Structure to design on (423 residues):
Protein backbone atom coordinates (compact mmCIF):
# COMPACT_ATOMS: atom_id res chain seq x y z
CA UNK A 1 0.00 0.00 0.00
CA UNK A 2 1.45 3.37 -0.97
CA UNK A 3 1.93 6.01 1.66
CA UNK A 4 -0.66 8.81 1.72
CA UNK A 5 1.44 11.08 3.92
CA UNK A 6 3.24 14.18 2.57
CA UNK A 7 6.96 13.66 2.27
CA UNK A 8 8.02 15.79 5.25
CA UNK A 9 7.28 18.65 7.60
CA UNK A 10 10.46 20.10 9.10
CA UNK A 11 11.48 23.60 10.10
CA UNK A 12 13.92 24.39 7.29
CA UNK A 13 15.69 22.12 4.81
CA UNK A 14 18.49 24.69 4.60
CA UNK A 15 19.61 23.48 8.04
CA UNK A 16 20.56 20.09 6.58
CA UNK A 17 24.33 20.63 6.11
CA UNK A 18 24.86 21.36 9.79
CA UNK A 19 22.73 18.38 10.71
CA UNK A 20 24.76 16.08 8.46
CA UNK A 21 27.97 17.02 10.28
CA UNK A 22 26.42 16.41 13.69
CA UNK A 23 24.92 13.06 12.63
CA UNK A 24 28.35 11.98 11.40
CA UNK A 25 29.90 13.03 14.73
CA UNK A 26 27.38 10.90 16.63
CA UNK A 27 27.98 8.00 14.26
CA UNK A 28 31.64 7.91 15.30
CA UNK A 29 30.46 7.20 18.85
CA UNK A 30 28.09 4.42 17.77
CA UNK A 31 30.25 1.52 16.54
CA UNK A 32 27.76 -1.24 17.42
CA UNK A 33 25.00 0.34 15.35
CA UNK A 34 27.49 0.96 12.54
CA UNK A 35 28.39 -2.74 12.50
CA UNK A 36 24.72 -3.67 12.34
CA UNK A 37 24.18 -1.18 9.53
CA UNK A 38 27.00 -2.73 7.55
CA UNK A 39 25.40 -6.17 7.89
CA UNK A 40 21.95 -4.79 7.11
CA UNK A 41 23.24 -3.27 3.88
CA UNK A 42 24.47 -6.69 2.85
CA UNK A 43 21.59 -8.90 4.09
CA UNK A 44 18.60 -6.52 3.73
CA UNK A 45 16.53 -8.19 6.50
CA UNK A 46 13.87 -5.44 6.45
CA UNK A 47 13.40 -5.34 2.68
CA UNK A 48 10.18 -3.50 1.79
CA UNK A 49 8.90 -3.32 5.38
CA UNK A 50 7.11 -0.07 6.23
CA UNK A 51 8.21 1.33 9.59
CA UNK A 52 6.62 4.28 11.39
CA UNK A 53 8.90 5.50 14.17
CA UNK A 54 7.83 8.01 16.83
CA UNK A 55 11.12 8.84 18.54
CA UNK A 56 13.16 11.80 19.72
CA UNK A 57 14.57 13.31 16.53
CA UNK A 58 18.22 13.58 17.50
CA UNK A 59 21.58 12.79 15.93
CA UNK A 60 21.53 9.31 17.47
CA UNK A 61 18.03 8.59 16.17
CA UNK A 62 19.17 9.69 12.73
CA UNK A 63 21.74 6.90 12.74
CA UNK A 64 19.07 4.38 13.74
CA UNK A 65 16.87 5.58 10.87
CA UNK A 66 19.82 5.24 8.48
CA UNK A 67 20.37 1.69 9.75
CA UNK A 68 16.74 0.69 9.24
CA UNK A 69 16.82 2.13 5.74
CA UNK A 70 20.05 0.26 5.02
CA UNK A 71 18.22 -2.93 5.95
CA UNK A 72 15.66 -2.25 3.23
CA UNK A 73 12.93 -0.63 5.35
CA UNK A 74 10.66 2.18 4.16
CA UNK A 75 10.98 4.48 7.19
CA UNK A 76 8.92 7.47 8.31
CA UNK A 77 9.88 9.36 11.47
CA UNK A 78 7.92 11.72 13.69
CA UNK A 79 8.76 13.34 17.04
CA UNK A 80 7.87 11.72 20.35
CA UNK A 81 8.18 15.01 22.23
CA UNK A 82 7.53 18.59 21.04
CA UNK A 83 10.77 19.88 22.58
CA UNK A 84 13.20 17.09 21.72
CA UNK A 85 13.56 17.63 17.98
CA UNK A 86 16.88 18.87 16.64
CA UNK A 87 15.74 20.80 13.56
CA UNK A 88 19.03 20.49 11.68
CA UNK A 89 18.93 16.71 12.14
CA UNK A 90 15.36 16.51 10.88
CA UNK A 91 16.40 18.49 7.80
CA UNK A 92 19.45 16.27 7.25
CA UNK A 93 17.37 13.09 7.32
CA UNK A 94 15.05 14.50 4.66
CA UNK A 95 17.59 16.29 2.49
CA UNK A 96 20.60 13.98 2.73
CA UNK A 97 19.11 10.56 3.44
CA UNK A 98 15.66 10.76 1.83
CA UNK A 99 13.81 9.73 4.99
CA UNK A 100 10.44 11.47 5.53
CA UNK A 101 10.41 13.32 8.86
CA UNK A 102 7.53 15.10 10.59
CA UNK A 103 9.04 17.04 13.47
CA UNK A 104 9.62 20.70 14.40
CA UNK A 105 11.08 21.75 17.72
CA UNK A 106 8.49 23.61 19.79
CA UNK A 107 5.53 22.40 17.72
CA UNK A 108 2.15 22.91 19.36
CA UNK A 109 -0.11 20.04 20.40
CA UNK A 110 -2.17 20.13 17.19
CA UNK A 111 0.96 19.90 15.05
CA UNK A 112 2.42 17.18 17.27
CA UNK A 113 -0.61 14.95 16.81
CA UNK A 114 -0.88 15.83 13.11
CA UNK A 115 2.69 14.57 12.74
CA UNK A 116 1.83 11.32 14.51
CA UNK A 117 -1.15 10.98 12.16
CA UNK A 118 1.21 11.47 9.20
CA UNK A 119 3.37 8.62 10.48
CA UNK A 120 0.31 6.41 10.87
CA UNK A 121 -0.77 7.37 7.34
CA UNK A 122 2.34 5.51 6.21
CA UNK A 123 0.40 2.30 6.98
CA UNK A 124 3.22 0.77 9.01
CA UNK A 125 3.95 -2.91 9.27
CA UNK A 126 6.28 -2.20 12.18
CA UNK A 127 5.89 0.54 14.79
CA UNK A 128 8.72 1.99 16.83
CA UNK A 129 7.77 4.12 19.82
CA UNK A 130 9.11 6.30 22.61
CA UNK A 131 6.00 6.48 24.78
CA UNK A 132 3.49 4.36 22.80
CA UNK A 133 1.86 7.30 21.00
CA UNK A 134 1.75 5.66 17.56
CA UNK A 135 0.43 2.45 19.09
CA UNK A 136 -2.13 4.47 21.04
CA UNK A 137 -3.41 6.23 17.91
CA UNK A 138 -3.64 2.93 16.04
CA UNK A 139 -5.61 1.26 18.82
CA UNK A 140 -7.94 4.22 19.38
CA UNK A 141 -8.46 5.86 16.00
CA UNK A 142 -7.08 3.61 13.25
CA UNK A 143 -8.25 0.15 14.23
CA UNK A 144 -8.82 -0.71 10.58
CA UNK A 145 -5.02 -0.66 10.15
CA UNK A 146 -4.23 -3.04 13.02
CA UNK A 147 -4.35 -6.10 10.78
CA UNK A 148 -1.51 -4.71 8.65
CA UNK A 149 0.98 -4.64 11.53
CA UNK A 150 3.51 -7.38 12.23
CA UNK A 151 4.69 -5.93 15.52
CA UNK A 152 6.28 -3.00 17.28
CA UNK A 153 8.97 -1.90 19.70
CA UNK A 154 8.82 0.39 22.74
CA UNK A 155 11.83 2.10 24.27
CA UNK A 156 10.56 3.89 27.39
CA UNK A 157 9.52 2.78 30.86
CA UNK A 158 6.35 4.86 30.53
CA UNK A 159 5.45 3.27 27.20
CA UNK A 160 6.02 -0.27 28.48
CA UNK A 161 3.73 0.45 31.44
CA UNK A 162 1.00 1.59 29.04
CA UNK A 163 1.44 -1.41 26.76
CA UNK A 164 1.40 -3.95 29.58
CA UNK A 165 -1.87 -2.37 30.72
CA UNK A 166 -3.22 -2.74 27.18
CA UNK A 167 -2.12 -6.38 27.14
CA UNK A 168 -3.71 -7.03 30.56
CA UNK A 169 -7.03 -5.75 29.21
CA UNK A 170 -6.75 -8.15 26.26
CA UNK A 171 -6.69 -5.24 23.81
CA UNK A 172 -3.11 -5.37 22.49
CA UNK A 173 -3.48 -6.06 18.78
CA UNK A 174 0.05 -7.13 17.84
CA UNK A 175 3.28 -8.30 19.51
CA UNK A 176 5.59 -5.73 21.10
CA UNK A 177 9.25 -6.07 21.97
CA UNK A 178 9.98 -4.02 25.08
CA UNK A 179 13.37 -2.62 24.11
CA UNK A 180 13.34 -0.68 27.38
CA UNK A 181 13.66 -3.94 29.31
CA UNK A 182 16.88 -5.07 27.65
CA UNK A 183 19.82 -5.10 30.05
CA UNK A 184 21.93 -3.24 27.48
CA UNK A 185 19.23 -0.56 27.50
CA UNK A 186 18.01 0.08 31.03
CA UNK A 187 21.26 -0.71 32.83
CA UNK A 188 23.20 1.75 30.66
CA UNK A 189 20.88 4.14 28.82
CA UNK A 190 18.62 4.82 31.81
CA UNK A 191 21.30 4.85 34.49
CA UNK A 192 24.37 6.32 32.79
CA UNK A 193 22.83 8.10 29.81
CA UNK A 194 19.83 9.69 31.51
CA UNK A 195 21.78 10.25 34.70
CA UNK A 196 24.42 12.33 32.95
CA UNK A 197 22.16 14.09 30.45
CA UNK A 198 19.55 15.03 33.07
CA UNK A 199 22.17 16.80 35.17
CA UNK A 200 23.50 18.36 31.96
CA UNK A 201 20.02 19.73 31.12
CA UNK A 202 19.46 21.17 34.60
CA UNK A 203 22.85 22.89 34.64
CA UNK A 204 22.55 24.23 31.09
CA UNK A 205 19.12 25.68 31.87
CA UNK A 206 19.97 27.23 35.25
CA UNK A 207 23.76 27.54 35.50
CA UNK A 208 23.46 26.74 39.21
CA UNK A 209 26.11 25.08 41.37
CA UNK A 210 24.81 21.70 42.56
CA UNK A 211 27.43 21.27 45.27
CA UNK A 212 25.87 21.80 48.69
CA UNK A 213 22.29 21.90 47.43
CA UNK A 214 19.51 19.51 48.42
CA UNK A 215 18.61 17.60 45.27
CA UNK A 216 15.36 15.63 45.41
CA UNK A 217 14.93 12.64 43.07
CA UNK A 218 11.42 11.21 42.88
CA UNK A 219 11.58 7.57 41.81
CA UNK A 220 14.47 5.17 42.30
CA UNK A 221 14.23 3.02 39.20
CA UNK A 222 17.18 2.79 36.84
CA UNK A 223 16.74 6.41 35.74
CA UNK A 224 16.36 7.70 39.29
CA UNK A 225 19.44 5.74 40.35
CA UNK A 226 21.45 7.38 37.58
CA UNK A 227 20.27 10.90 38.38
CA UNK A 228 20.92 10.42 42.10
CA UNK A 229 24.40 9.04 41.42
CA UNK A 230 25.37 11.93 39.14
CA UNK A 231 23.88 14.60 41.43
CA UNK A 232 25.87 13.19 44.36
CA UNK A 233 28.95 13.17 42.16
CA UNK A 234 28.47 16.92 41.67
CA UNK A 235 28.44 17.44 45.42
CA UNK A 236 24.69 17.64 46.01
CA UNK A 237 22.98 16.26 49.10
CA UNK A 238 20.56 13.80 47.48
CA UNK A 239 17.11 13.00 48.84
CA UNK A 240 15.02 10.20 47.33
CA UNK A 241 11.23 9.88 47.45
CA UNK A 242 9.64 6.53 46.58
CA UNK A 243 6.40 4.53 46.83
CA UNK A 244 8.08 1.13 46.50
CA UNK A 245 9.47 -0.04 49.86
CA UNK A 246 12.17 -2.22 48.27
CA UNK A 247 13.49 0.62 46.14
CA UNK A 248 13.26 3.03 49.06
CA UNK A 249 15.30 0.61 51.18
CA UNK A 250 17.85 0.27 48.37
CA UNK A 251 18.17 4.07 48.11
CA UNK A 252 18.68 4.29 51.86
CA UNK A 253 21.39 1.62 51.78
CA UNK A 254 23.01 3.37 48.81
CA UNK A 255 23.56 6.28 51.16
CA UNK A 256 20.73 8.64 50.25
CA UNK A 257 18.24 10.26 52.58
CA UNK A 258 14.73 8.88 52.01
CA UNK A 259 11.54 10.72 52.93
CA UNK A 260 8.07 11.57 51.68
CA UNK A 261 7.58 14.20 49.00
CA UNK A 262 5.74 16.36 51.57
CA UNK A 263 8.86 16.50 53.78
CA UNK A 264 11.21 16.81 50.83
CA UNK A 265 9.19 19.72 49.46
CA UNK A 266 10.06 21.79 52.52
CA UNK A 267 13.84 21.34 52.26
CA UNK A 268 14.61 20.67 48.58
CA UNK A 269 16.44 23.14 46.34
CA UNK A 270 16.21 21.17 43.08
CA UNK A 271 13.56 18.56 42.24
CA UNK A 272 13.65 15.97 39.47
CA UNK A 273 10.89 13.42 38.83
CA UNK A 274 11.67 10.04 37.25
CA UNK A 275 8.64 7.82 37.86
CA UNK A 276 6.43 7.48 34.77
CA UNK A 277 3.41 8.51 36.88
CA UNK A 278 1.37 11.70 37.15
CA UNK A 279 1.23 14.49 39.75
CA UNK A 280 4.27 13.17 41.60
CA UNK A 281 5.00 16.77 42.54
CA UNK A 282 1.49 17.90 43.40
CA UNK A 283 -0.10 21.21 44.26
CA UNK A 284 0.21 20.34 47.95
CA UNK A 285 3.96 19.77 47.55
CA UNK A 286 4.47 23.02 45.65
CA UNK A 287 2.59 24.95 48.32
CA UNK A 288 5.25 23.81 50.81
CA UNK A 289 8.32 24.57 48.71
CA UNK A 290 10.76 27.30 49.63
CA UNK A 291 11.47 30.37 47.57
CA UNK A 292 13.70 29.61 44.59
CA UNK A 293 12.97 25.88 44.28
CA UNK A 294 13.70 24.48 40.82
CA UNK A 295 11.42 21.84 39.28
CA UNK A 296 12.35 19.43 36.51
CA UNK A 297 11.22 16.12 35.06
CA UNK A 298 13.12 13.34 33.31
CA UNK A 299 10.17 10.97 32.85
CA UNK A 300 8.73 10.64 29.37
CA UNK A 301 5.55 12.73 29.68
CA UNK A 302 5.08 16.18 31.18
CA UNK A 303 2.50 15.02 33.74
CA UNK A 304 4.82 14.16 36.63
CA UNK A 305 4.70 17.76 37.86
CA UNK A 306 1.17 19.10 38.34
CA UNK A 307 1.74 22.04 36.02
CA UNK A 308 -1.92 23.20 35.80
CA UNK A 309 -1.91 23.60 39.60
CA UNK A 310 1.36 25.53 39.43
CA UNK A 311 -0.21 27.92 36.95
CA UNK A 312 -3.25 28.34 39.19
CA UNK A 313 -1.03 29.15 42.17
CA UNK A 314 0.95 31.78 40.25
CA UNK A 315 0.01 35.46 40.27
CA UNK A 316 2.66 36.23 37.64
CA UNK A 317 4.95 34.33 35.30
CA UNK A 318 7.92 35.24 33.15
CA UNK A 319 10.82 33.64 31.31
CA UNK A 320 13.74 33.77 33.71
CA UNK A 321 16.24 32.15 31.32
CA UNK A 322 15.93 30.15 28.10
CA UNK A 323 13.99 26.99 29.03
CA UNK A 324 13.24 28.30 32.55
CA UNK A 325 9.85 29.76 33.52
CA UNK A 326 9.44 31.68 36.78
CA UNK A 327 6.19 31.40 38.74
CA UNK A 328 5.57 34.07 41.39
CA UNK A 329 3.15 32.90 44.06
CA UNK A 330 0.73 34.96 46.17
CA UNK A 331 3.12 35.14 49.12
CA UNK A 332 6.04 36.30 46.98
CA UNK A 333 7.81 32.95 46.70
CA UNK A 334 9.15 32.07 43.28
CA UNK A 335 9.30 28.56 41.80
CA UNK A 336 11.15 27.75 38.59
CA UNK A 337 10.09 25.14 36.00
CA UNK A 338 12.59 23.83 33.45
CA UNK A 339 11.55 22.93 29.90
CA UNK A 340 7.77 23.07 30.47
CA UNK A 341 8.11 19.99 32.66
CA UNK A 342 9.11 17.89 29.66
CA UNK A 343 12.14 15.61 29.47
CA UNK A 344 14.77 17.94 30.84
CA UNK A 345 17.69 16.18 29.17
CA UNK A 346 16.17 16.80 25.75
CA UNK A 347 14.24 20.01 26.40
CA UNK A 348 17.28 21.79 27.83
CA UNK A 349 20.22 19.73 26.53
CA UNK A 350 20.97 17.19 23.78
CA UNK A 351 19.77 13.96 25.35
CA UNK A 352 21.88 10.89 25.96
CA UNK A 353 25.47 10.69 24.80
CA UNK A 354 25.72 8.83 21.50
CA UNK A 355 27.90 6.08 22.93
CA UNK A 356 25.14 4.88 25.24
CA UNK A 357 22.39 5.28 22.62
CA UNK A 358 24.57 3.00 20.49
CA UNK A 359 23.33 0.07 22.58
CA UNK A 360 19.72 1.24 22.85
CA UNK A 361 19.36 1.71 19.11
CA UNK A 362 21.19 -1.51 18.38
CA UNK A 363 18.40 -3.13 20.40
CA UNK A 364 15.83 -1.30 18.26
CA UNK A 365 17.39 -2.41 14.99
CA UNK A 366 17.86 -6.04 16.00
CA UNK A 367 14.40 -6.21 17.58
CA UNK A 368 12.90 -4.97 14.31
CA UNK A 369 14.79 -7.73 12.49
CA UNK A 370 13.54 -10.27 15.07
CA UNK A 371 9.92 -9.17 14.67
CA UNK A 372 10.03 -9.51 10.89
CA UNK A 373 11.67 -12.94 11.09
CA UNK A 374 9.33 -14.32 13.76
CA UNK A 375 6.05 -12.45 13.22
CA UNK A 376 4.10 -15.64 12.46
CA UNK A 377 5.19 -17.24 15.75
CA UNK A 378 4.55 -14.36 18.17
CA UNK A 379 1.43 -13.78 20.24
CA UNK A 380 -0.25 -10.46 20.95
CA UNK A 381 1.77 -9.69 24.02
CA UNK A 382 4.74 -7.68 25.31
CA UNK A 383 8.02 -9.58 24.96
CA UNK A 384 11.40 -8.85 26.45
CA UNK A 385 14.30 -8.49 24.03
CA UNK A 386 15.64 -12.01 23.37
CA UNK A 387 18.66 -12.71 25.58
CA UNK A 388 20.83 -13.62 22.60
CA UNK A 389 20.30 -10.11 21.17
CA UNK A 390 21.14 -8.50 24.50
CA UNK A 391 24.34 -10.52 24.85
CA UNK A 392 25.40 -9.91 21.25
CA UNK A 393 25.06 -6.16 21.72
CA UNK A 394 27.13 -6.29 24.90
CA UNK A 395 29.76 -8.39 23.11
CA UNK A 396 29.94 -5.95 20.20
CA UNK A 397 30.18 -2.99 22.57
CA UNK A 398 33.05 -4.55 24.51
CA UNK A 399 34.80 -5.42 21.25
CA UNK A 400 34.47 -1.82 20.04
CA UNK A 401 36.08 -0.66 23.31
CA UNK A 402 39.00 -3.04 22.95
CA UNK A 403 37.97 -5.12 25.97
CA UNK A 404 38.37 -8.89 26.10
CA UNK A 405 36.64 -11.12 28.65
CA UNK A 406 37.02 -14.72 29.71
CA UNK A 407 35.07 -17.63 28.29
CA UNK A 408 33.89 -20.72 30.12
CA UNK A 409 35.88 -23.87 29.56
CA UNK A 410 33.94 -26.99 28.59
CA UNK A 411 34.46 -28.26 32.13
CA UNK A 412 33.12 -25.05 33.67
CA UNK A 413 30.08 -25.00 31.39
CA UNK A 414 29.35 -28.63 32.19
CA UNK A 415 29.65 -27.95 35.94
CA UNK A 416 27.21 -25.04 35.78
CA UNK A 417 24.63 -27.17 33.98
CA UNK A 418 24.91 -30.16 36.33
CA UNK A 419 23.57 -30.94 39.80
CA UNK A 420 25.34 -34.10 40.85
CA UNK A 421 28.96 -32.96 41.25
CA UNK A 422 29.65 -32.28 44.90
CA UNK A 423 31.96 -29.86 46.62
Amino acid sequence: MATTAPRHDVKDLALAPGGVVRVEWADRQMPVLAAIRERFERDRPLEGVRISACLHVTTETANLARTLKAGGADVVLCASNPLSTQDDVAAALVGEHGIPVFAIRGEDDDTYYAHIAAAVDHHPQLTMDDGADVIGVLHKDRREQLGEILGGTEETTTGVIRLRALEAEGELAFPIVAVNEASTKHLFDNRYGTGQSTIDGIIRATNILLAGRRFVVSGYGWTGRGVAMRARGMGAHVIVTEVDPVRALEALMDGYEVMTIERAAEVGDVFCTATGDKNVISRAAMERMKDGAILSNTGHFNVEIEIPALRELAVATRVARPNVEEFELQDGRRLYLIGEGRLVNLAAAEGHPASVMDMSFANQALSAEFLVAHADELERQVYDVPEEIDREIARLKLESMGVEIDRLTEEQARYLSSWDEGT
